[in-house]
Write a structure and sequence with these properties.
mainly alpha; globular
């Protein structure tokens, strides 16, 4: 790939970041990442799983220390609840509270459902290709950052 294409890709990633800034305003103290965390936990719970922080970290492909901090903050705000495992007190499960469920449903149903209708013209293959490309680019940049 030539360097001009790399620059064009980076420019499109910058634009993608700006798209996130256009998401509707969330209630005071709620970050967009909280919605994604809530969704991940809800989806994992729907798979009949007792969810641990490591599960969320793996599911979202995010480093565990950052996930731990975010989950701690979300618990302080009342969106999540930690529950010690009965068989081993060192193991802690997390679950979504009714407050967290409300925030997730309000944002997910009202905003994303409407946005999906507006994006109906996009080809699913192109969307999958975009997602794959961004994920692969992230892997390369992440590896280069570790050197």
């Amino acid at each position: 790939m030539n360097s001009e294409k790399v620059k064009q890709m980076l420019d499109s990633f910058y634009m993608a970041k700006r798209i996130l800034d256009l998401l509707p305003q969330l209630p005071q103290g709620v970050l967009p990442s909280y919605i994604r965390y809530l969704e991940a936990i809800i989806e994992l719970e729907q798979q009949n799983k007792k969810v641990k922080i490591s599960d969320v970290s793996d599911y979202l492909n995010l480093p565990r220390p950052g996930v731990t901090r975010t989950i701690h903050t979300m618990e302080e705000k009342g969106f999540l609840k930690k529950i010690a495992a009965k068989h081993d007190g060192r193991i802690t499960y997390i679950t979504v509270t009714s407050k967290g469920q409300y925030i997730f449903e309000k944002f997910n149903q009202e905003y994303f459902s409407d946005l999906a209708k507006s994006l109906d013209f996009l080809n699913e293959k192109d969307i999958d290709c975009t997602i794959k490309t961004i994920n692969e680019f992230y892997k390369v940049m992440n590896e280069r950052g570790r050197k």
